[in-house]
Predict the structure of LysR substrate-binding domain-containing protein.
Amino acid sequence: MTGSETSPTFRLAYVPGVTPAKWVRTWNERLPDVPLTLVQVPAADAPGTLRDGAADAGILRLPVDRTFFSAIPLYTETTVVVVPKDHLLTAVEEVSVEDLAEEVVLHPLDDVLGWDQPPGEPAFERPATTEDAVELVAAGVGLLLVPQSLARLHHRRDLTYRPVVDAPQSGVVLTWPEEATTDLVEEFIGIVRGRTVNSTRGRTRAQTADRAKDGQGSGARGKPATARGGRATGQKEGSGASRTAKSARAGKGGKGGKGTKGGGRQGGARRRS
């Protein structure tokens, strides 16, 4: 794993429609000295951005190349159909693919739903972008199926949308090159998974080292340190109690000295364990 010191900032790529704001806020609270830079990229360009090292991780839409990238599912979006506000489909709360059979359905070149051909009648040509397709919907040329976040992103007052219950959906993932799993990537993974600030897996190496310097280490290494730390005070403060307990068991208050030796041996056993 590459140390986080090689990346003074953390660069997070994200595609249109996704909203990383809540995770960015948590990052800024936990790592105020490590700036997080957002890099917005078109969905088609996002994998290349990560491959080229222009971002450390990204919030992308499926599919991703799992032979190169690691990925953590975040959520799945509902697919909606964007229609003019006076369209007949606005009379219902949701629609099915079959309801679109006689409609002209636009298929932009940057489509993220991954189907070869949307339902309905094809348009004469494919719009270059989703934004262009939304403009054509407003002009009455056809309808458009997109993830709900993209419908919101390109919202217009003269358009609305309805959920399509049986259409393909868009899965959103946190992804990064598997061989570039840095400490800062691990930190962001912890944030999106909801780990607390005190989680060992959620701390960077630098933070863990600082805790160790302060004598706050955890796990197997911390136990011997605690035992050694107790040696100076444990014999001084605990020997009286050891004598009392030994004398009480033996019923011979005059042999407290032997009790002290016995207590020392027991204390040593505890340190070795």
